[in-house]
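User: Hi! I'm working on a homework problem where we have to compare a predicted structure to a textbook description. Could you give me the structure for the chain below?
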Amino acid sequence: MSVFQDRKEELEKHEFMMGTHRGRLAVTLDLLTEAMVLVGQHSVYCRSQRKPGQPAMDIRLINQSLGQAKELIQHVMEEMRAERERQRAQ
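Assistant: Happy to help. Predicted structure tokens:
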């Protein structure tokens, strides 16, 4: 199922509040956060053989990539907000 169908209500709410682009980015952040929670839960059971106190390397890399994706999206959203404020100030 398409994200536009599966998350229709959430998209509509955020797009109305924030505009189309920022609203979709906000929903994307929510999806990434949900994925990070699932990876975190999985990491409890999937432990490293070399470092028993830590998740397996693939789980750590997935979590790192998701965190970096969130960071990039947050930066884009902040830049969009700053640009909008600059345009209003002119």
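For your comparison, note the following. The first helix runs from residue 3 to 6. DSSP finds four helices and no strands in the chain. Good luck with the assignment!
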